[in-house]
Amino acid sequence: MMTNVKVNCVSCFKEDLDKDTIALNKKLLGKEIEHFYCMECLAEYLNTSTEELLEKIEQFKEDGCTLFK
């Protein structure tokens, strides 16, 4: 688990991604990934919208996904 490590977007280099964005990357791209996308770049990469990704985060939280604690 990464603690107190600043994670930046691999695509646009946005700095200090929030924990939900990091968790969503792991949930959708695999727990072992080493490079992360910001919400906007992840949406583009997955050909979806940021709104849909935000809805997915809430859904995963409601489902009790441990990545979103």
Overall description:
It is globular and about 30 Å long. The protein has helices at residues 19-29, 39-45, 50-62. With 69 residues, it is mostly helical. The two termini are 12 Å apart. It has one domain (19-68). The chain has three helices and no strands.
Major β-sheet, in short?
A: none
Mean pLDDT reading: 94
Shape: globular
The figure for the number of domains is 1
- Give me the strand/helix succession: HHH
Number of strands: 0
Q: Helix coverage percent of residues?
A: 40-55%
Radius of gyration: 11 Å
- What is the count of helical runs? 3
The computed structural class is: mainly alpha
Distance between the termini: 12 Å
| Portion in beta strands | under 5%
Unreliable spans: none
Put the structure in a nutshell:
By secondary structure, the protein is mainly alpha-helical. 45% of the residues lie in helices and 0% in strands.
